[in-house]
Design a protein that fits this description.
single chain, about 210 residues, mainly alpha, 6 helices, elongated
Length: about 210
């Protein structure tokens, strides 16, 4: 960027991070809806895994945005519509993850979190269109312009490549996290049905019947 200089390079990580957050929360909504329909814990694991990854990339997007804001806006943070709505979205999905920790019953956990996972998706279009619906410091869309992208072709190609690579990374992270979630669920189920002898269980209280010899 001719004005921002080297700091504009943050765009190639900031924008893909925001895109990954939207994608991840969309998958959480899809997984939650599929659980409601199919009652399969497989879909619940997809929803939970994607929410965790989405929270990670939302934190990255906010953090990088703050670093970018300081030299361009002169402040680390301002109560801009997009920044504020993104922060609210982050806390809602952190709440989603916290809700999953309130019970060890796998299906009860899935039922509760699936409702929030479906409803919370309304925040994604709010965050995305906030720069159009409200007057904000954040720049309007540069790629998804109605007429044509408002960005130079080499920069656009580099940005799209970064988005593609981040998407591949998301897929790899999802594969590993879903497998880990399956192992966690299996361990939790084993702990719930474990009927092994507990240390000290065989010890019985002495009988005092008959008095002292």
């Amino acid at each position: 960027d001719a004005i921002q200089g080297q700091v504009s390079r943050i765009m190639y990580v900031h924008v893909p991070s925001a895109w990954l957050a939207f994608l991840a929360f969309g998958v959480t909504m899809l997984g939650s809806a599929m659980y409601v329909w199919k009652k399969s814990l497989f879909w619940d694991r997809i929803a939970a895994s994607s929410a965790e990854i989405g929270v990670l990339f939302t934190i990255m997007a906010l953090g990088l945005g703050m670093i970018w804001a300081k030299p361009t806006w002169g402040v680390w943070w301002t109560w801009d519509a997009r920044l504020t709505l993104t922060a609210i979205m982050l806390f809602v999905y952190i709440g989603y993850l916290a809700l999953r920790r309130t019970t060890d019953d796998l299906h009860a956990r899935a039922r509760r979190s699936s409702i929030l996972g479906i409803l919370a998706i309304v925040q994604v279009p709010l965050v995305h269109f906030s720069v159009i619906w409200w007057r904000t410091l954040h720049q309007p869309p540069s790629v998804f312009e109605p007429a044509s992208p408002d960005i130079d072709t080499p920069m656009l190609a580099t940005l799209l490549l970064a988005v593609a690579m981040f998407t591949v990374m998301y897929g790899a992270m999802m594969i590993k996290r879903i497998e880990l979630a399956r192992l966690e669920d299996e361990l939790l189920e084993r702990e719930q049905v474990d009927d092994s002898v507990v240390a000290g269980e065989a010890v019985t209280a002495p009988s005092l019947e008959g008095g002292v010899a």
